[in-house]
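Quick look at the format.
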Amino acid sequence: MWIYKVKQNPSTKHETVSLCALFGIMGAAISQLWTPPIIQVGFVGLPSTGKTTIIHKLSQGQKPTLPLTDTVNTTRFFQGSQEYCIFDYSGNEKLRAIWRKLLFRMQAIVFVIDSTDRANKEETREALWQVLREEMLDPQPVLILANKQDNPKALSVLELIAYLEIEKDLEKTRKCRIIATSSITGEGLVEGLEWMRQIVRTNPSY
């Protein structure tokens, strides 16, 4: 095996450093301008949390792109200039066991919570932890939608954070956020989608 050594000219050292810095700046600028052609998002949550209604609201009533199944519905729509492909996965207990395999290929994850459902506290927390603390899903940003905030009996976001014991998950370096939403009024939905888009936009590797 032949090994060649190139002797660097001291006079070009600063030029090389300058070029590296320039390419670094250009790369950062391109990253900021880059917009993914389509963002694939996995929607999960327990049954009756309002996932399908939220997607219906965001897509302005557009019907699922693929035929309805017991496992997943797929809907594609534009929000501004950004196109999304939403995978609405069933929240039944049997499918929850394979959520990680289904969500692994997504660029972002949305977990929908029924803010009025106190009866299923343990089940909701267990399902949410299954997503937040799964190492296989660690790179993806997770958006938690505290739905049904239009209901007077709904728990606030702060109450839900304590209720579900997710303070540490929100403080981790991984991108994670919880937003108060209503699938009826549309509160927080566009805001949440835009936050998610910005995270994916600045991290093309997702």
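Next, a different chain entirely:
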Amino acid sequence: MYGQQYLLHLLLVICLVFCNGQVLQFGTCPDVKTMQYFDVEEFLGQWYEIERFPIWYEQYDPIGIPFSVISTDYKNYAVVYGCKNNESLGLKYISAWILSRQSTLPEEYLSLAYRDVNSVPSVSQIYMEKVNHSATRCSSYWTAHIQPIYFNQDGQK
């Protein structure tokens, strides 16, 4: 009986992955190497999504994924990564974004961003989807409110 339930759960997860296209993997979120000496003040301002992981679960049930800046030059591009564990299912939800200060990103910066995306464990640029910034797709304006959480050297808030 236990084996049948496990197989049913496994098939359900596989179906969800292939039907919805999200990046959902077995395991727990890894520790990732983030930017040293990240300057929050310099990072603030307007950014455009250039490419991102599909995020179906945010559309139906926002789960609030904490994210980290993997790399940025502050003026042109940024690579942002997020991961949230679902301990009851033994899964992790993974998100990643390539951002730009403009609605497009020159190839030289996109190549740097891909390099940095691919450096994160369990992440690959093959999961990325391009974001359409055409006038018809961007007819409404919205903003995201981002608050930094500061940690000391011991990892305490």
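DSSP finds four helices and six strands in the chain.

See the schema section for token definitions.
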